[in-house]
Amino acid sequence: MDFPTFLIQCLNAVQYGLLLFLVASGLTLIFGIMGVINLAHGSFYMLGAYLAYGLAPLVERYLGGGFFTTLALGTVLAIAFGYLLEWVFFSYLYEREHLQQVLMTYGLILVFEELRSILVGDEVHGVATPDWLSGSFPLSEVMTYPVYRLFISVVCAIVAIALWAVMTKTRLGMRIRAGATNREMVQALGIPIRFLYRVVFAIGVGLAVLAGLVAAPVSSVYPGMGSQVLIICFVVVVIGGIGSIRGAFVAALLVGLVDTFGKVLFPSLAGMLIYLLMAAMLLWKPEGLFKAG
Amino acid sequence: MTTMAADDAMRTRLPKLLPVLIAFALLAAFPAFGSTFYVDLVGKIMIYAIFAMSLELLVGQTGLVSFGHAAFFGIGAYAVAMVTAKVDAASLWLVVVVAVLASAAYALVVGALSLRTKGVYFIMITLAFAQMAFFVFHDTSFGGGSDGIYLYYKPALTLGSLVLVDFDKGRAMYFGTLACLVATFAFLAVLLRSRYGRALAGIKANEQRMRAAGFATYPYKLGAFVLGAMIASLAGVLFAMKDGVVNPELLVWNQSGAVLLMIILGGLGHLRGAMLGALMFTVLQEVYQSEALFGSFSKHWQLMLGLTIIAFVATMPRGLIGLFGKRAKKEAP
Amino acid sequence: MSDILLVATGVSRHFGGLKAVDDVSVTLTRGELHAVIGTNGAGKSTLVNVLSGEIPITTGAITLLGHDATRWTQPRRSRAGLGRSYQRNTIFPQFTVFENCRLTAQARWPKVWDWWTPTSRCADSREAALRAIERAGLMPVVQRLAGTLSHGQKRQLEIAMCLATDPQVLLLDEPLAGMGAEETERMLALLGDLKDGHAVLLIEHDMDAVFRVADRITVMVNGRVIASDTPAAVRASPAVQLAYLGDEFVA
Q1: In this structure, are C75 and C188 located in the same domain?
Q2: Which chains form contacts with chain C, at 3 or more CB pairs under 8 Å?
Q3: Helix, strand, or coil here: C41?
Q4: Same domain, C149 and C206
Q5: CA-to-CA distance for B37 and A157, rounded, in angstroms?
Q6: C121 touches chain B (CB under 8 A)
Q7: How many pairs of residues across A and B have Cβ atoms under 8 Å apart?
Q8: How far apart (Å, rounded) are the C-alpha atoms in residues C99 and C103?
Q9: What's the CATH number where C174 sits?
Q10: Which residues are within 8 A (CB) of A121 and not within 5 positions of it... i.e. 6 or more apart?
Q11: Of A64, B15, B45, B235, whose CB count within 10 A is highest?
């Protein structure tokens, strides 16, 4: 492999890993704080992608806005949706056993998938890259790299840093982390735990939707994209350690690297490599790389 | 004291066993007065009942929530297709041995790794490993790719060169399936009353306490996992023989979700519940997919299924069995 | 056959920087009830957890019936003759009293490959269970569901489950927890009776009870042993009186 190709694969790996991190961090946050395993988390990613597809023309026609407006509007809608969904559905899941949570969120996936099918249909759609991001970045005399992919990495990195900052530097972040370790104490201190959960859930949904929004031009929009990303996120969370955002970050990049380079180096094994990585992790450290928190 | 325990066991067991025996008798008589469509449907339900009971062993009896059980069902089905040559029917013995050994081997690896974890991790990992199996059949040339494999000849039950049972003829497939259903129920019912089965019940109730008593719990759980996989693969063999075609969709996580749903619908913790759940699920699926009832909306039947799942789990976590008797469950299957 | 059944030497258990158990040595002899007392958080339960094998030891050695059991898993120690009861009930509420004990007894005769014999016909575990139930005084309620027992009966069942495995060493973690006066008397009689044939380690907070049944007392504070002697000597020890500020000891 020559250096430009190697560089391209590295950039791809990082881009993929950072996207995965956005989705996986939501998943691990929701489980770490509220103890809910949410199979429907992949559906939020799908929602984001479909929003990119469906919202863009509406934003253009009625708001005269462009790409960033779609992005911002989509994220805001997602957070509102997450807030409502927690209120109406997920808040009833907290005290239930894992099996019940699994089944109820599985039922939710079916509902989301069919609603999508009814509203938008089952075809695959492309989403246009915004013009000012459509170019290519030269890496060598012959190789170039799409600017949009760099843009994805930048957006995800910014969000990751923002997430880290909120979790470690703000009062909200501290309350969230406290809520994970000691629910009763937080309540006793007068902090409204129900509201906290709603916020955490909304953030989790927002992250996944944003990932879908941003990835849509590159990944296209198709049924089944939700379950695909969910299972990979499970692998990320298992490797990283459930409840740990740091773990999700490291594991997401690791999965990105293994998957990207694996597809290039061992094309016949392509889809299986990350599961082999997970198997290796289970042999070495079944609890995952990092502890919760 | 000894007779008291035995009598007590009999008293709780018989009334619960009777409906099952009656059901088996009805199933045996059904082809005499059922149409081909319904006999076919009941055949499918029986296969799902075997599949569901195999998962019940894991989830309901040992407390291991696996979301990847469809992988073993699929392995069993693919074994039939891959062992059968394009020119002749394979021997049923060979097919069953290959199916069971293949699923046992995969279950050993998956189980050994997954059982190093608990709870939520276990659910996610079993799902991931099932997806890996899906990849093998879907993306590689190993299993014929996304189109699957067409079964040209059903395996036959042979003794040397003598064909004992040709499953293409008459109701042979139906009764063969019924025989497997009865055998599976009997086997599991006896197993669950044995030391091994009781140990599993203890592990489900409080694994730590069992370890404190001196049970090495890991081998017990791994054994249940492998056994459940082997029985699931048997159901897969029957399914392939019945349908005549296998494809990777058999291993998709919707299948794992469906069988998990079956044991919840019927009632977790009982073999009868698993069979009842298989019936209920198939009926629901047929109803929701019925164009006669829902017109063109029937192609979105999964929406109604999803809503039903949510409503059901939220309001009736004990399943249908819970409606029939509030008495505490002892050891009755 | 030696009567010294369990020897713990220099046992320590650290959690990061916290020394939950720090250089504790204990010897358990058949026919003797050895009580471990101490303030809350002194490390008593952690000590039991380390001795039983539930949590790994950091440093030190454990000898069980003459064998070096330091690296043994909990099931292995249990099968070798080490039984324990828990401070919080670990009974199986959905099973009968009989089944609770039969199940734990079964660990001695696992017979994993015997898939056809129903447990109602397994004489070995059945008889062991009945012996344990008899000893614990629970015969009148043998067929009752464990979840319907009174608290005192549940604590007795907790001990019966431990006895059903026919242990030689008993580690009992606060068996008197939450008991009324009459139930306490019954339990104390049982504990005194259990000394016969077993080596007993008893963790307890009830000082009157401890001084009535114990042959030796070890006092722990902040993970360390500050006294280990006969009850009379411990009572008179100034170090112990200082640690307890005279509250719990009525001379």
Answers
A1: yes
A2: B
A3: coil
A4: no
A5: 57
A6: yes
A7: 112
A8: 6
A9: 3.40.50.300
A10: none
A11: B235
Closest CA to C132 of C175, C103, C109, C112: C103
pLDDT of residue B179: 95
Assess contact for B87 and B209: CB atoms under 8 A: no
Domain C-terminal end among C116, C141, C166:
C166
The residue with tokens 């276990």 is B122
* Cβ count near A156 (within 10 Å): 25
**Does the beta carbon of C73 lie under 8 angstroms from any beta carbon of chain B?**
yes
Same domain? C19 vs C43: yes
**Residue closest to B24 by CA, chosen among B166, B189, B169:** B189
Domain count, chain C: 2
Contacts of C110 in chain B (CB under 8 A): 195, 199, 215
CA distance B240 to B51: 13
Of residues A171 and A184, more confidence is placed in A171
Check B190 against C116: CB less than 8 A apart: yes
**Are C136 and C185 members of one domain?**
no
Which ipTM was obtained for this model?
A: 0.91
**Of residues B15, B80, B34, the one with CA closest to residue B178:** B34
Does C183 lie in the same domain as C147? no
Question: What digits encode the pLDDT tens for the residues B166-207?
Answer: 777 778 899 999 999 999 999 999 999 999 999 999 999 999
Contact (CB<8Å) B213/C78: yes
Q: Does A106 touch chain B (CB under 8 A)?
A: yes
* Interface probe, candidates C86, C97, C108, C112, chain B, greatest B C-beta count within 10 A: C112
* CB atoms inside a 10 Å sphere around CB B28: 14
**Contact partners, residue A195, CB within 8 Å, separation at least 6:** none
C28 is in which domain, residue-wise? 1-81+168-251
Domain end call among C166, C201, C218: C166
Q: Which of C85, C58, C82, C86 is nearest to C7 (CA)?
A: C82
Q: What are residue C21's phi and psi, to 5 degrees?
A: -130, 125
Task: Give residue B2's pLDDT.
Answer: 44
Whether residues C108 and C161 share a domain: the answer is: yes
Write the pLDDT tens digit of every residue in A21-75: 999 999 998 988 888 999 999 999 999 999 999 888 888 888 777 788 888 999 9
pTM: 0.91
**Top-level class of domain B19-324:** mainly alpha
Evaluated on CA atoms B199, B201, B207, B208, the torsion sign reads negative
Residue boundaries of the structural domains of chain B: 19-324
- pLDDT confidence of residue B56: 97
Query: Model confidence over A189-218: pLDDT tens digits?
Result: 777 888 888 999 999 999 999 999 999 999
- Examine chains B and A and say if they touch (3+ CB pairs below 8 A): yes
Average pLDDT in chain B:
88
Token pair belonging to A64: 């005269």
**C231/C241 same-domain check:** yes
The residue written with tokens 């007993």 in the block is: C200
- Convert the pLDDT of each residue in B287-309 to its tens digit: 999 888 878 788 889 999 999 99
Is the pLDDT confidence value at B8 over 80? no
Identify whether residues C137 and C173 lie together within a single domain.
no
Q: In the predicted model, what is the mean pLDDT of chain C?
A: 90
Is the pLDDT at C1 greater than 60, yes or no? Answer: no
